[in-house]
């Protein structure tokens, strides 16, 4: 409703927009943000090649464009010069049409008419016509020009090349030696310099292309086996529609970061480990069978989604795609240590990140642009959502702070000491857990169906205790 009215959540809150502190603290980056690795080398190769081609084209235009060199129009061009002028005319025509098509009617007749008159203008300016074409052939076949051309080739092969080749060889050897000794090539126009620049870019670009192709090829299998055919390990109940909420005590972000560094895992995986133990405690207290693992869906939400204001802020730009995960649930009757459970979560989490790049990207594009609803009927998507929400009855949302260690203030100057955001469960989802990062702490909140009362506080209340136990197991000072 807010998005349809052009409003954000922050527009309804009487808060002063947050500002980044001068302490230099940077927000931690969640692994849920970029599951599908964005190509880095391919854009770099494109930029480098575009720059090189642009420079070559500018040199070509400066040499053969009659508009840059009016003296070319005073004499009849040779056949080669006529071909160069024709190529420049064609490129100029394409550029003119690309600009002109934006301001004319979007129909075939208008485009053909515009292209015709643009072609007349460009050919007239550069005198590209049948008469010039025939005269250029005659000039190229003129015996005087043929004799001059023979002498030029004789000079090039018999005088210029014998002098130039040793200089080129010396420059290539010097460039190669510099690459070995200095680790970079200061001679970019040598063959060695070109190879030194482009071979790594082409090689790494090829690796990125194969990564994308691998994701595209393996995505259907992953979606079918790991998502659609996922077994239902949690018996869902008939939802009553009423919601209940609960939240944990705050946990210092610095404590989670320290555990993350000590155990060589991400902060998200540390908090997932505590969530899995909270779920195990809930199953125990409610006398339910504890599953080996529980299918959950995860997504990251930047705090700008909640607090940012203004017409240029789009909340959908601050929400990541969805990741499906089989979260291991430790059984108290089995002798499974906290670190062993954390290691199992790490392995399954990394496996999901590797396999679900495309599905994560598609769900993110759906959130931002509605790409799936453009091509698929809403009925199919609704059935698909209800089907998935039955298999993945638990949703985990990670709210990361855009401005760490910053306490926001209200419009009347009062400091906001605590913030909790709940993401309502949808369709057949019965439990929605939300990791709220605000200022210098994290709170775990839950919004669930009222059928889970009175045991629902066990889903979150033990979160600080389990983080402390994990810190002790990791020997965090």
From TrEMBL:
Transmembrane region(s): 146-163, 175-197, 209-229
**Ranges for domain O-acyltransferase WSD1 C-terminal:** 322-466
Q: Example GO biological process term?
A: triglyceride biosynthetic process
Keywords assigned by UniProt, alphabetized: Membrane, Transmembrane, Transmembrane helix
Give the superkingdom in one word: Eukaryota
Could you give one GO CC term from the UniProt record?
Answer: plasma membrane
Which GO molecular function annotation, any one, does this entry have?
O-acyltransferase activity
Q: Which InterPro entries match?
A: O-acyltransferase_WSD1-like, O-acyltransferase_WSD1_C
Q: Which Pfam families does the UniProt record give?
A: WS_DGAT_C
Q: What is this protein called?
A: O-acyltransferase WSD1 C-terminal domain-containing protein
Q: Say which species the protein is native to.
A: Acanthoscelides obtectus
